[in-house]
Automatic annotation (TrEMBL):
The chain holds residues 582 to 873 of 883 of the full protein. It comes from Desulfuromonas versatilis. Residues 24-278 form the EAL domain. Transmembrane segments: none annotated. Signal peptide: none annotated. Residues 271-292 are annotated as: Disordered. This is Diguanylate cyclase/phosphodiesterase.
Length: 292
């Protein structure tokens, strides 16, 4: 408790705040030791071609295997990792692990797919991202053409000039750039034309209520049409139903991702994802058929 600053000073520290501060400290300490003890894991979620139902890519999604808390979703620890700077080491681990996994699948004889990795603002602006990515590509033997980095509009807008030059360096390495959560920020598509990006991921918030919500349906259709006219690929996030899938496909959206195609799961549980859109006679049809 604060003392000696007059009667009200002690009320600055409430029991609730104390608990919260202690929790954060504990969380930070746990995060640090988890990096050393291999307690992070990547889950992978399929991205499919909406026209054929075929698997074209995977997004790597980070989880924390906490000894006491169980599997912790990224929303519960990435903000703190970002704040403390730990995100740069964690992000490096994510990149390396995702690249290794991509090669492991190919070693198993599975057809190559693109690997999408989320990049945090701090990682993006630290100045050594390009060097880090290059050394990871070199160490792992990952083909840059199969790597895609996901960044957000708001990240780019923080410092446009720096962002654009970093994006050009990444793109010059043959790595694709995607704008994640498109529509959640404020940039216009015309503005995006200035950036060396190859695809837009339409934010799940706009996909959630289509096709019934006519406003969202109009926004999504316009975004797809403009993206197509700018030669940008579109990926719809959060597809959960056949209705959403059909609507997006009919509007010319090329790719999709969501529970409808598969939830994010550990690598070992994904072998069947490559059968999607490629029916084999000895498998039950409902397990292998693409979206219908
Ligand atoms: P994101 O990159 O937009 O990832 C998509 C999120 O939507 C994932 O949540 C995924 O599990 C969820 N999702 C996918 N399909 C559906 C669906 O059909 N319905 C619903 N309701 N949700 C769906 P997750 O895994 O909890 O990740 C949340 C966010 O955490 C990610 O959003 C990304 O911004 C961040 N994140 C995840 N992994 C990493 C990482 O390795 N590094 C960094 N910097 N951020 C990460
Ligand atoms: Mg993402
Ligand atoms: Mg997203
Ligand atoms: Mg999101």
């Amino acid at each position: 408790r604060a003392k000696g600053q007059g009667g009200n000073a002690c009320t600055v520290y409430t029991p609730a705040m104390n608990t919260r501060a202690q929790e954060l400290l504990e969380l930070e300490r746990d995060l640090r030791s988890s990096l050393e003890h291999d307690q992070f894991i990547l889950h992978y979620q399929p991205q499919v071609d909406l026209a054929t139902g075929r698997l074209v890519g995977m997004e790597a999604l980070l989880r924390w295997q906490h000894p006491a808390r169980g599997l912790v979703p990224p929303g519960d620890f990435i903000p703190l990792a970002e704040q403390t700077g730990l995100i740069t080491s964690i992000g490096e681990w994510v990149l390396r692990t995702a690249c290794r996994q991509n090669l492991a699948w190919q070693d198993q004889g599975l057809p190559p797919v693109r690997m999408a990795v989320n990049i945090s603002p701090r990682q993006f602006y630290k100045g050594d991202l390009v060097a880090k990515v290059s050394s990871i590509l070199e160490d792992t033997g990952m083909d840059p053409a199969q790597l895609e980095l996901e960044i957000t509009e708001s990240m780019i807008m923080e410092e446009v000039e720096t962002a654009v030059s970093t994006m050009h360096e990444i793109s010059a390495m043959g790595i694709a750039l995607a704008i994640d959560d498109f529509g959640s920020g404020y940039s216009s598509l015309a503005y995006l034309k200035r950036f060396p990006i190859s695809r837009l991921k339409i934010d799940r918030a706009f996909v959630k209520d289509i096709p019934n919500d006519t406003n969202d349906a109009a926004i999504v259709s316009a975004a797809i049409a403009m993206a197509n006219s700018l030669n940008l690929d579109t990926v719809a996030e959060g597809i959960e139903s056949p209705e959403q899938n059909d609507f997006l496909r009919s509007q010319g959206c090329r790719l999709g991702q969501g529970y409808y195609f598969g939830r994010p799961v550990p690598a070992e549980q994904l072998a069947g994802a490559w059968d999607r859109g490629n029916p084999a006679p000895d498998r039950p049809a409902h397990l292998i058929s693409g979206p219908h």
